[in-house]
Design a protein that fits this description.
The protein is mostly helical. It has one domain. Helices cover 57% and strands 7% of the residues. Strands 1-2 form a two-stranded antiparallel ribbon. A hairpin with a 6-residue loop joins β1 and β2. The longest helix has 21 residues. The radius of gyration is 13 Å and the shape is globular. The two termini are 16 Å apart.
């Protein structure tokens, strides 16, 4: 869990998606880099919590961190934004 003090208020953030619910393109990317989605999700949450990065510009950080293509990084970030935003709204 990650403690977040930003816009959504101070709360503990838990992963929002179960690994078995991921779209096929995300599963393929994660398989290629041998990484769980929860790890990528935590990386993005920490990046967002820092406040210095516009999350639409964050794919380059994933490319650097995980050695994936820009397209794969954009797919991961887009999926994360969609699922994270809906999880925050539901809270």
């Amino acid at each position: 869990m990650i403690h977040n003090n930003n816009n959504i208020g101070s709360r503990l953030i838990e992963p929002t998606v179960r690994e078995n619910e991921l779209p096929a393109n995300i599963v393929t990317t994660l398989s290629e880099i041998q990484t769980q989605y929860s790890e990528v999700e935590r990386f993005l949450i920490e990046l967002a919590s820092g406040g210095g990065v516009n999350m639409y510009g964050s794919p380059s950080y994933l490319v650097e961190q995980y050695g994936i293509t820009e397209t794969q990084a954009k797919e991961l970030v887009t999926y994360w934004i969609e699922t994270f935003t809906s999880a925050v709204i539901e809270v």
